[in-house]
Structures are given as C-alpha cells and as structure tokens.
Amino acid sequence: MDRWTEIALFVQIAEAGSLSRAAESLGLSNAAASRHLSALEARLGARLVERNTRRLYLTDTGRAFCARAKTILADLEDAESAANATALQPTGTLRVTASLSFAIHHIAPLLREYTERYPEVTVHVEAANRYFDLIDNNIDVAIRTREFEPDSNVSIRRLGQTRRILAASPRYFARHGFPKTLDELQRHQLLIYTYANNPNTLSFTKDGHAETLSVKGLLESNDGQVLRAAALDGMGILVQPTYILYEDIVAGRLVPTLDDWDLPRLTINLAYPSRKHLSAKVRSFIDFIAAHFARMDYERKWTARFGAR
Questions:
Q1: What residues are paired with 228 via a beta bridge?
Q2: Whole-angstrom Cα distance, residue 30 to residue 254?
Q3: Nearest-CA neighbor of 238 among 308, 160, 149, 172?
Q4: Domain 2-83's class?
Q5: How far is CA 160 from the centre of its chain?
Q6: CA separation (Å) from 294 to 57, 109, 287, 289?
Q7: What letter would DSSP give residue 90?
Q8: What is the pLDDT of residues 154-175, one digit of tens each?
Q9: Residue 1 pLDDT greater than 60, yes or no
Q10: Exposure of 234 by Cβ count < 10 A (0-12 exposed, 13-18 middle, 19+ buried)?
Q11: Is 297 helix (H, G, I), strand (E, B) or coil?
C-alpha cells in the first residue's frame, strides 16, 4: 500500500510543483509526505526531486519516472473502472478543456443540467486557446477543431462541422459599405484571429474556383471573444467559426458578408485518452455533449449559408 502512496504522492508533487500541496491533496501531513518521498527515492536509489529556497523541480530521472508512473496510475484506475463498470456511477472530478469561445457558448450553458443529472461529478473547465497534452495535463475530455489527433493514445468522437464566415455589425456596414468582391475586402478594416492557420492568408472557394488573399488586420488577437466584442462595437469585419457567431447573426447583431464564398471548414471533435474501459464520468460527459449537439442540429445550422452580401 505504501508503494502506491509513494507513487501517487510523487506524481502529485510533479503536477503541483509543491510537496505541501501534494500532501494536502492526498490527506497527508507534510512530514508523512516527506517520509514517503524519501522512502521512494531510497528504494529507487535515485534522486527524483531537487529543492531550493524558491522552487521545487524534477531531476532528469524524476521526469522519466513521472511519465511511467502516470501511465501506471492511469492503468490502475482503468482496471478499477473496468471491474466496476456495470455498477459504477459517474463520480469524481471531470477535467474538460476547450477554447474560451467554445467554453463560453457551448459548455458553460450546459453545466447546470449536467451536474444536476450527475451530482457526484465535479467539473473543472480549463478554457485555453491552445491544445494541451491530455495525458501530461490529466485532461479527461478536450473539444478541438481539427480532423485528427497525432497521438495514437487519444481517441476522438466527431461532433460536427462548422463554416468560417466574415461578419460585421450593421453600424460598420452603414459606415463603410458591404464589400462586393474579394478585392474590395482587402480595403476594409479586418479583425484577425492570430491562432488560425496562416492568419494573414484567407483561402476562398466558390463553384470550384479558388482565390487566396493576403490580409492585414486593424486588430489582431489570439482570442475570438476579443474580436467578437470589437466587431459588435463596429470596429471591423471578423473571420470566425459560425459556432461563435450564429446567435449574433440570428439576432441581427452581426451581418455576414461575401457568404457565397467558402473558407476552409473546421471539424469539431471530442478528444479523450484512449482506454478500453472509459470511466463513467468521461462516458457520461461525452454522451451528454454528443446528444446535445444532435438534438440542437448544430452541424446543419453551422454549415448553412446566410446569403451573399
């Protein structure tokens, strides 16, 4: 039993960067945690952790051992979940990550219903406009807009596709007019999302014809909500996925333009660490989100055209 405690404690130390926080998470005193760490290092005959007055960090041996230890603990949890799969109720902390925009528009509004249905689950939402390594960051489910995962240890479940569209506020178009051609678009004030692939290049297609524009933004940001706020304030034309802009367009707060042209579409997937037996909390959340997307008919809405302007 002490051996498992030592390994679990060491992984917590590596993740928290603090012996005291790791001890607290496992319900140990600092003295007991220090003894467990010393016992582990003595048994292995290697120094795993170095400390100075300012910080705690892993040695090279510690980093290598941590990677193996995480896998061992994950396999143990998987084995326990498999043994209790028929009776296990969703419980524990569910760690979910998505972009800030997706978290605001399509996760936060569902959390009350999900937690009422599964009251033993605590949801931790990590909103970030970058892709975390799921295993290293202990992420249960990620919502991502890419076709596939390069890591074979990650499984995906497709939620749907979304178009990317150009839109601005009625006030902006009243002042500057609608661009009638792609060439005219280059003379407008553009709001650029810097985390897009090739953010200063827009690749359009229409009726089998392709055109590529080099663009420069009046405003650039790594977050879609900053650009959306600027567009709503009449600052310019933004390029964002329909899943972010759909409600604004339906309400008339934003108006699409050049909608007869297509930009490359995005595929929205759920990504999660591959396990033969998914824990009940992960399975419940994946099924819950997928059912909601199907019920709301999002793919049809988000790939529809609003009409050329």
A1: none
A2: 56
A3: 172
A4: mainly alpha
A5: 15
A6: 46, 16, 11, 9
A7: P
A8: 899 999 999 999 999 999 999 9
A9: no
A10: middle
A11: coil
Residue ranges of domains in the chain: 2-83, 92-160+266-297, 164-257
Q: How many residues does the chain have?
A: 309
pLDDT of residue 206: 94
Looking at domain 164-257, its CATH architecture is: 3-Layer(aba) Sandwich (3.40)
Question: Could you tell me which of 239, 243, 238, 224 has the C-alpha nearest to residue 302?
Answer: 243
What's CA 31's distance to the chain center, in Å?
37
DSSP-H helix ranges across the chain: 2-16, 19-25, 30-44, 60-83, 100-102, 111-117, 170-176, 182-185, 224-232, 242-250, 280-296, 298-303
Structure-block tokens of residue 127: 């909103």
pLDDT band with cut points at 50, 70 and 90 for residue 138: confident
Residue 84: the pLDDT is: 62
Instruction: Tell me the C-alpha distance between 217 and 234, whole Å.
Output: 14
Domain pair 92-160+266-297 / 164-257, same fold: yes
Note the pLDDT tens digit of each residue in 99-136. Answer: 999 999 999 999 999 999 999 999 999 999 888 888 88
pTM: 0.71
Distances from the Cα of 35 to the Cαs of 22, 23, 50, 117, in angstroms?
13, 11, 15, 41
Q: pLDDT tens across 189-228, in order?
A: 999 999 888 899 999 999 989 999 999 899 999 999 999 9
Q: Which two tokens stand for residue 108?
A: 């936060």
Nearest to 34 by CA among 15, 9, 12: 9
Q: Apex CA 178: angle with CA 177 and CA 183, to 5°?
A: 110
Crossing angle of helices 224-232/242-250, nearest 10°? 20
CB of 26 closer than 8 Å to CB of 13: no
